[in-house]
Amino acid sequence: MNIDPVSVVNAIKAIAPATVSLGIQQAQRNEYIIKILKRLNLDPIQPPKEFEGVYTYALVEYGVFKADYILNFFRNKEIKKAFYKAFAENALAIDNEEWNTLKDEAQQAKIDLAQVEKFHQVFLSVAKRSINPGEVITNVQLQEHLNKSTEPPEQSLYPDEFKALIEEKTKAFCGRVFVFNEFDAFLKKHPKGYFTVIGDAGMGKSAIAAQSVSKYKAICYFNIRAEGRNTPDQFLQSIRQQLINRYQLQNAENDNLPTLLTKVNEKLATGEPLVIVVDALDEVEQPGSGNLLDLPKNLPERIYFLLTRRRYAQNEKRLLTEEVPEQQLDLTANKYEVWNRKDVKEYISTFINDEPEHHGLKAWIQKRNIEPPYFIEQVAQKSENNFMYLYYVLPRIAEGDYQDLSLEELPEKLQGYYELHWKQMEMDTPDKRTNAIILCVLVEVGKPISCESIACITERDEYDVLELLNKWLEFLRRQKQNQEDYYSIYHQSFADFLRKQPALKREKKSNNIDWQEVQRLISDSNDQLWASLKPGEDEDE
Known about the structure:
Oligomer: single chain
Largest sheet: 5 strands, parallel
Distance between the termini: 90 Å
Strand order of the largest sheet: 2-3-4-1-5
Structural class: alpha/beta
Strand content: 5-15%
Shape: globular
């Protein structure tokens, strides 16, 4: 027997109007129907107000391009109950016992904890839209009342010198669950120790370090060769001040690191660990053969170091310990290949969906009739699991710089991206080689330097220098000091690339930049250069 759906609907409307209203309410809780309404631009401006409706709408908005195993985790009825319980306990912050229970469930399901936080943010966004105009007025009045509170703002967990870096690295952080799982196991198994994350340039070591600072409320230090922030004295000065501030240490202004850690150990509550994160040991400038940054050979109980570095030969090891547990996690190891690829694909998916300014990437994909999963897979392969590649390439696609390229023509590997930009800037042509000397100065100086100082060193017009710097800005870190911009190389891999360029090699040939000439120019401008360096920087060479 054939049944006409329209007739059935009309019959229901005629017999039971209340049933229609109830049916609409139920429909607004159905993922499939919500997706159809959104596709037809028929979804309501104000989502349903009850938890079930808000949760389902949030799941739809959060779930674009997300893997099925992640969505199924949030669809699970028990997880939904756990989310509601945690949300009811502390709606705005994910920092209580109920939220920790939900995070434990996520870790057991091998879901990145960042996904729980992202879903929570989407849920909050939908919940705000679900309130009616009267409630908006009430909330505004309540917020005005709260703003009159005289309580001092909570002090930042991050030291000022690294606050911007940590916030930048953690903003779009995703994945790396396997790294944190191994480190957590290390903390449980050993009473103290050194845990080292090893990887190639661009594999996300600094992002892991930054996320660890947030996750473990760690003391931290980030070695940055391009900024001249990479010596034992600078490290000790920063770590010492952080420990003094956090633990209210007395008479510690001149203590060495072992003494500081001993004093901290006496301040720790029972069972409380202290994690100290140190990023980029490979960028440390330190002569001799002792431990890099003079890291202690012995550690007090409950003191743990989480270190990151590039790979080096075993005979170059610069961490010697005495009966202190050590463990290394090499991101390049074959057993982590699947995890690395999964994290890279998740990063690409998140980039496509999370920020409005990335809509140009969606348009680029749609214009070429590419299915998003295929795009994600192909770009992941081109990146060779390198996050720095994605950091550069994805924004350029979104900004419209690759409109003439197909998916197949996108650069291969991080090195390929640098080479493509080099060719686009026509840096191998004779008339552009004079511009290359400006990049050489940035590499050779190795510290933040002003546009005015670069112009002084190279004897170029300041406007011309600024114009070139703007063309290479994505590879540079720009910081403002005393109302003036200072520039340095953003990532060490780019400095390494520049040193290997035929036109910039250090061998003295007629068609190469003469590095000795660069050094002479810097030396001749020594007074002006060091006077323009950021105040507070260590100027010893």
